Amino acid sequence: MKKNIILFIGLVCAVLAVGIVGTAIAASHEPQDNNTTGITPELIVSVEKTATVSAGEQVKFIVPGNPTTGYRWIVTDADGLNVTEEFIQATQEEGMVGVGGWQVFVLTAENAGTYTFTAEYKRSWETDAEPVYTFTQTVVVTESSGEAAEEPVYVISFDGMMNPQVNEVVKIIVPGNPTTGYVWNAAAADGLKILKSEYLPDEHEEGMTGVGGTYVWYVTAENAGTYTFGAEYKRSWETTAAEQFTVNLTFIE
Question: Which of 19, 95, 103, 150 has the fewest Cβ atoms surrounding its Cβ within 10 A?
Answer without folding.
Answer: 95
